[in-house]
Amino acid sequence: MRTLSGTLEAAQKSMTYDPIWQVVLTPPAAGTTQTYDRTRVIGITHTEEPYSCKADIILNNSDGAATIDFEHWQASIS
User: Fold this and answer.
1) N or C: which end of the chain has fewer CB within 10 A?
2) Cβ atoms < 10 Å from Cβ of 57
3) How far is residue 78's CA from residue 27's CA, in Å, rounded to a whole number?
4) 32, 31, 21: which is closest to 55 by C-alpha?
């Protein structure tokens, strides 16, 4: 496990950034992929374990355009 000095940790926490990401979602059966970029993606959390991985992607759907249930879709995050 890595450790940081208090100074470095404080500097990392104080940094602000504007992430540029894109998410391509592929349905479990044949169908049309959906692509979202920084205009729609609000946040991403990702966890990896030895035999699995999971990502939670939060989309901005304030305009009601995304009407699909994306559970079990595969995601390519870049």
Assistant:
1) N
2) 19
3) 18
4) 21
Q: What sign has the CA pseudo-torsion 9, 11, 16, 22?
A: negative
> Is the pTM value of this prediction over 0.90?
no
Q: How far is CA 77 from CA 7, 9, 36, 39, 42, in A?
A: 31, 26, 10, 15, 13
CA–CA dist 58, 41 (Å, integer):
6
Alpha-carbon span 63 to 46, nearest angstrom: 26
Q: Are β-strands 34-36 and 23-26 bridged in parallel, bridged antiparallel, or unpaired? A: antiparallel
pLDDT tens per residue, range 39-62: 888 888 888 888 888 888 888 899
Contact by Cβ (8 Å): 46, 55: yes
